[in-house]
């Protein structure tokens, strides 16, 4: 299945290949690893919460609360807004004669033609798994944070995933036609707000915070992020990321300072190959327009790479320590390599890969922060680096968790296996039977719904998903079924069957020689992680999927 439509932007956070790799981790063991001691420093919630209030958050030109209020000034949505306000504490979507809207973490939003939220996604907003100390997501977060010590680094968690389009894309230099902006890839609350697709959405606020708190030189951010995507054992529409950044203030001896910071970095046991050291070509360039001192850029890149090698080493050590001693020696040193990458908000940029089960497994993305981003946050003439990682990818490797859906499980058989500060291998409690069902259909030849926002003026194409979480109801503005995009069937499946779908594969595709019409066949694997599904139940779900595909996308079932 084609996953990578948005290049490095998407790839850095993907958990692909991990399920296979995780299966290679040997038997469970119990360990108290050396990073546990740093827990006390980073665990305090009040500090983590301080960031949104303390920072002068100038990127929030459109404040969620203000937007909601502004929409009511038009008068059109006042009733709907009132209904949302009074609708109780849970996240929810409401449709009425005035239009549709959602309440997300207490704030009402009015939908427009860009909205494509679903109820199933909203039900996951606010779980804050990274704040449950005994959850593998939180344990992994703490392990990563322990590599970036306070007070040099400040550790933040960002609970509210609703950000502006400006914060998520514009401020970071994403081109207007970047595929990551597409409604088939991103969950839009409306045309000004979305569910963040990466932690980089908070870079501007975090750098602004650093500018106001110069005793800190860097930060990490932990948050849940959202992407419309295919369904398999290593992809879930919500996952967790961590972002880190470090800056150096202007100083006559800055190069020497950065160099000494590099030299103070502890040695690791990794075997590293660096294929990304040339910044003189267009492939991965210096930032000439800002007159970056080339010697400094090389040093910042070196510091960045050494810092992240620490993270990988610490994770590898923690994972090793969790294995029986006989299994440890067979591993040998961990091999890693740096390769060139592209992100709109860093240059030069890099990705780190590790050798895993005979393949190179991509672990993270990073680079030297675009000077314009630092300057806009008030960090004049500073220089610095930033990185972003997907937590699930690390956690699946560390704990040997084979299916990304497990992180969301509330089953005590899962949750009881983990304890803060400890890496323990997951013991599967049961494997319930899979149930495969095919759905085959002819699709319309109308333009694809994947067109990036702004790239199309059609108000009907792709609107079906804007019916929001309740896909049985199309958007009020919709006059004809939308064209089909692969992520749309994924969304329908999530809405109808939630985490009862293990994976979805395109098993057949052909174009009719005379009519030119295209036929697709998807194979859906329905399997619960927690119980055996009945035939009746699966048939019911599958029929509902077919019904919605027909109603929303005008497909002709075969
Ligand atoms: N935000 C990027 C992603 O989600 C990762 C990244 C963060 C890259 C910071 C560079 C710097 O893929």
From TrEMBL:
Domain FDX-ACB stretches? 430-558
The record's annotation in InterPro entries points to: aa-tRNA-synth_II (IPR006195), aa-tRNA-synth_II/BPL/LPL (IPR045864), Fdx_antiC-bd (IPR005121), Fdx_antiC-bd_sf (IPR036690), Phe-tRNA-synth_IIc_mito (IPR004530), Phenylalanyl-tRNA_Synthase (IPR002319)
Top-rank taxon, per record: Eukaryota
Q: Which keywords belong to this entry?
A: Aminoacyl-tRNA synthetase, ATP-binding, Ligase, Mitochondrion, Nucleotide-binding, Protein biosynthesis, Transit peptide
Q: What is its EC number?
A: 6.1.1.20
Which reaction is catalysed here? tRNA(Phe) + L-phenylalanine + ATP = L-phenylalanyl-tRNA(Phe) + AMP + diphosphate + H(+)
Region labeled Disordered — which residues?
36-96
Kindly give the PANTHER family that the UniProt entry links to this protein.
PHENYLALANINE--TRNA LIGASE, MITOCHONDRIAL, PHENYLALANYL-TRNA SYNTHETASE
What is the role of this chain?
Is responsible for the charging of tRNA(Phe) with phenylalanine in mitochondrial translation.
Task: Provide the family line.
Answer: Belongs to the class-II aminoacyl-tRNA synthetase family.
Tell me the protein's name: Phenylalanine--tRNA ligase, mitochondrial
List the taxonomic lineage.
Eukaryota, Fungi, Dikarya, Ascomycota, Pezizomycotina
């Amino acid at each position: 299945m084609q996953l990578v439509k948005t290049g490095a932007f998407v790839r850095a956070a993907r958990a692909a290949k991990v399920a296979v790799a995780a299966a290679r981790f040997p038997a469970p063991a119990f360990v108290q690893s050396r990073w546990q001691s740093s827990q006390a420093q980073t665990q305090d919630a009040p500090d983590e919460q301080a960031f949104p209030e303390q920072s002068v958050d100038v990127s929030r030109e459109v404040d969620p609360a203000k937007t909601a209020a502004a929409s009511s000034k038009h008068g059109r949505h006042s009733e709907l807004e009132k209904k949302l306000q009074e609708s109780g504490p849970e996240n929810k979507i409401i449709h009425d004669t005035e239009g549709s809207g959602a309440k997300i973490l207490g704030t009402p939003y009015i939908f427009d033609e860009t909205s494509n939220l679903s109820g199933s996604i909203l039900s996951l907003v606010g779980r804050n798994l990274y704040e449950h100390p005994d959850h593998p997501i939180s344990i992994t977060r703490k392990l990563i944070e322990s590599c970036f010590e306070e007070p040099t680094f400040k550790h933040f968690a960002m609970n509210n995933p609703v950000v502006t389009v400006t914060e998520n894309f514009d401020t970071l230099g994403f081109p207007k036609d970047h595929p990551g902006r597409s409604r088939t890839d991103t969950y839009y609350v409306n045309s000004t707000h979305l569910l963040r697709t990466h932690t980089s959405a908070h870079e501007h606020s975090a750098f602004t915070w650093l500018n106001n708190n110069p005793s800190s030189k860097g930060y990490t951010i932990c948050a849940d992020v959202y992407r419309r995507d295919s369904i398999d054992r290593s992809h879930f529409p919500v996952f967790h990321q961590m972002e880190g950044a470090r800056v150096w203030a202007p100083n006559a001896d800055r190069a020497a300072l950065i160099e000494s910071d590099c030299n103070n970095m502890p040695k690791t046991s990794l075997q590293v190959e660096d294929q990304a050291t040339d910044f003189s070509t267009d492939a991965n360039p210096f930032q000439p327009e800002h007159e970056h001192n080339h010697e400094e850029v090389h040093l910042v890149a070196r510091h960045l790479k050494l810092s992240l090698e620490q993270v990988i080493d610490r994770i590898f050590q923690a994972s090793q320590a969790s294995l029986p001693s006989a299994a440890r020696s067979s591993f040998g040193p961990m091999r890693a390599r740096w390769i060139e990458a592209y992100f709109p908000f860093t240059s030069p940029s890099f990705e780190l890969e590790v050798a895993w089960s005979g393949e190179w497994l991509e672990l993270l993305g990073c680079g030297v922060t675009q000077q314009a981003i630092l300057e806009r946050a008030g960090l004049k003439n500073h220089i610095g680096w930033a990185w972003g990682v997907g937590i699930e990818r690390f956690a699946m490797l560390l704990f040997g968790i084979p299916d990304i859906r497990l992180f969301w499980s509330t089953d005590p058989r899962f949750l009881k296996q983990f304890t803060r500060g400890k890496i323990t291998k997951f013991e599967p409690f049961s494997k319930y039977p899979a149930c495969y069902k095919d759905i085959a259909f002819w699709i319309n030849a109308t333009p694809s719904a994947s067109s990036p926002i702004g790239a199309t003026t059609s108000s009907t194409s792709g609107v079906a998903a804007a019916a929001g979480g309740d896909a049985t109801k199309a958007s009020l503005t919709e006059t004809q079924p939308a064209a089909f995009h692969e992520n749309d069937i994924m969304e329908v499946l999530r809405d109808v069957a939630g985490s009862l779908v293990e994976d979805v594969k395109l098993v057949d595709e052909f174009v009719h020689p005379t009519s030119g019409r295209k036929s697709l066949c998807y194979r859906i694997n329905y399997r619960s992680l927690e119980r055996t599904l009945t035939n009746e139940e699966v048939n019911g779900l599958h029929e509902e999927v077919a019904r919605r595909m027909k109603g929303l996308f005008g497909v002709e079932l075969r």
